[in-house]
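Board work, copied verbatim: Protocadherin beta-6-like
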Amino acid sequence: MEMVQTKLHQKKRQVMIFITLILSWEAGSESIRYSVQEETESGTFVANLTKDLGLRMGELAARGARVVFKGNRQHLRLDPDTGDLLLNNKLDREELCGSTEPCVLPFQVLLENPFRLFQAALVISDINDHAPEFPAREMQLKISEITIPGKVFPLKMAQDLDAGSNSLQSYIISSNPHFHILTRNRKDGRKSPELVLDKALDREEQPELRLTLTALDGGSPPRSGTTEIQILVLDSNDNAPEFAQEFYEAQVPENSSLGSLVITVSARDLDAASFGEVSYALFQVDDVNEPFEINANTGEIRLKKNLDFEEFQSYQVDIEATDGGGLSGKCSVIIKVLDVNDNAPQLTMSSLTSPIPENLPEIIVAVFSVSDADSGHNQQVICSIDDNLPFVLRPSVENFYTLVTEGALDREERAEYNITITVTDMGTPRLKTEHNITVLVSDVNDNAPAFTQTSYTLWVRENNSPALHIGSVSATDTDAGANAQVTYSLLPPPDPLVPLASLVSINPDNGHLFVLTSLDYEALRAFEFRVGAADRGSPALSSQALVRVLVEDANDNAPFVLYPLQNASAPCTELVPRAAEPGYLVTKVVAVDGDAGQNAWLSYQLLKATEPGLFGVWAHNGEVRTARLLSERDAPKQRLVVLVKDNGEPPLLASVTLHVLLVDGFSQPYLPPPEAEAAAAAPADPLTVYLVVALASVSSLFLFSVLVFVAVRLCRRGGAGSAGRCPVPEGHFPGHLVDVSGTGTLSQSYQYEVCLTGDHRTELFLEASLSS
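↓ predict structure ↓
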């Protein structure tokens, strides 16, 4: 290879090489040569590459060393553990190289990680395993008796397949007084015998002679081959045919069609009649002269077999012209074969790595060599691949190339590449060869699982069954194989005291979430936690997402009546003066609901009454008021049943029974309806304020005296007077039962006590405690 050039076209990267000279495996150094005799037994030790290449023990195996011959013919095998180079099979030099000497088989030693290529050659030395052989056991020669001594008569050559000193070296002839033999070196490198006349012949004395011609090679001991020469002595024929030229030269393109005229030779004979008639023939028909034929009458040499410049570049054809008397003359024709671009380039793949890992730049994917059997300009080739691929071609030693990734590949972007390597020669017309390879990209765990959402909100209704599936999380991983298999887990909560493991669990394979216990909205309205998704690559990559679980309230708490409390043994009785106006506030039913939202919205209605139409219940606040004026005809004892209903689905109910006693002369201040209360809330004048303050002070002192008096009376009576008291819960109600949503339940807690003595004397003690 003379030079390497890289040419970039619009759509292709091309590398142009000129295969004219052999490069060395490294700049400034020659290739390593090993020699072995042909026919050596298989397995014979040739060399130790570890030592010859200056490598460490075991480095050949670690770097995946390979021995590559042209055409992938493995004449040698490498033991990577020992570094020994062994003969793979018996080698026949004549089969591998023919007559070419020396017989050199170039090969390369390829190393990876990092890539390196060593040039080497195996020289096959010849052994003398072939003897010279003549084309026929006997040849005939006619010589006129008037031939002058010194005349030279060319004879047919013997062939020896060996080369060098083992090839044919000389000829000898049996002892005789008339002839001796000469060995002539031809232009094509072969040796031909020539018979030289030393003494004139006399037909009357000896009309026929028989001589033995022997061909000897240079082996030790030498081998030989023989043929008999029959010499017929002629009279009367004075002249032998003579060619116009002793040597002819011709050129013929290798792609010439059969029957094409190569050249015309001409000989003449000065004799008359039949002795002057000349016929032409190939002097020696063998493998070398096989492509040609000659017209016996005209001397035209034509092509009878296709030529191949790559096999033979020239031929030396001997032509014999014979007259009617049997005398002959000879000439030689040198035929040069002209090369045409009839061989497409060849690509030999030495190494292909697939799959290749992603994320690594400049990975050597393939190592290959290119060649073209043509010569000159027809032998120059261009290598190219498509420009839109992330690969480049780099020339290596001699006619070798490496296909290398241009940058780091991403399997998630593209997992497979179909690459066409095109090798085009520079001949006319241009011939090309395409070689297709498929390169797979192996996965590297470079992508963490990704959740479909950064956070999930799940709903679960309270009072659920344990191990209830409440939803799923999902994560995907764009890697492949085990690197894409996702495992889900619950991440430890920031607060180690949170019993997350007792609340939820997750299926590690599919991300299904389960709530493990029955939830109570009133105790736990929401909680959140984080889940992780990890792949099974090495190292494992993971991600996490937030899961928020909201507990939905179920209508599982019926309204609870705070006032009045129900006590069958001592029912509470409300006193209403018969003089009360419509809208008079009798009492207020106070209830709460432990649920939330609309499930805790309470409404009130009068379910039953002794006198329908006498009393009414306000639906939103539970106030029981008179609906009309009272009359003497109304029964003094009234029984009311108030229904309390929440807004759940289905709604839950509670009821309370009120006892109302209609009395005359009840001196309790008139409690106005809400409209009157609103009017009374208007600002008063300063004089009124002073009167109210003074009155409040006197009343407070009086009330305190009464309370002390009542306390003394109660202590004396003990439990005797408790039969007529309304049961009142002690202390304030728990704050968590107070609905602050303004949905109809009072925002304060009330305590009422109304007592009726056994002697039917009316005593009213009203205690109201208002707390926010």
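The first strand starts at residue 3 and ends at 8.
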